[in-house]
Amino acid sequence: MLKNIDLISFLHMIKICRDIVILQILLGSSSVLLCQNVLVLEKATKREIYYEPGDWIKIHEVIEGRTLSGQIFDLSDSSLVVGGIEVLIKDIDAVYRILDGYKLLQRISLLAGASYITLNAVNGFINSDDPMVPNETLIIGTALIGAGFALQPLTTRRHKVKNGIWRLKILDYTEEKPL
Predict the structure, then answer these.
(1) Rg of the chain over CA atoms, in angstroms?
(2) Which secondary structure element, helix H or strand E, spans residue 116, and what is its range?
(3) Alpha carbons 136 and 122: distance in angstroms, whole number
(4) Which residue in 56, 67, 101, 144 is a FRET match for 32, CA 20 to 30 A apart?
(5) CB neighbours of 155 closer than 8 A, spacing ≥ 6?
(6) pTM, whole model, 2 decimals?
(7) Which helix (H) or strand (E) holds 5?
(8) Per-domain residue ranges for the chain?
């Protein structure tokens, strides 16, 4: 009886290993066939920021004078599609990049200020305090909320593409490579 269970579990393990190998072969061959174009924002000092279809981007267009933001739907050799609008690379004046550290600090500050005031208000209501929210709480909470709003300009950085040290180019990875 014990030998049959060991044999069954051994055969089950072989089937699982076979399925894993087949999955790796399929995924490996599909990654060669599904390569794509990549938008690169690069600096003269060799700093590069890569954007692929599906990434969020915010750009300023010279011709129409509008700022577009949204998901990149498609990249061709000389244009990109953002939010359903096709924009030529040569018409892009600036690319805006979100600075994640400042964005996180802004969200934490806004959330902390609002939560601090709300929790003290609920506590004052439960304890039937005469001023339900003390002045010190209002000062600290509004200072945190104000700091969150003051951090707003620091959350994005503008990279000028025209006549600047940044440039845009599209790398083409669509050629098929032999396995």
Answers:
(1) 27
(2) helix 100-126
(3) 15
(4) 56
(5) 98, 99, 102, 103, 106
(6) 0.62
(7) helix 2-33
(8) 1-34, 36-98+155-174, 101-154
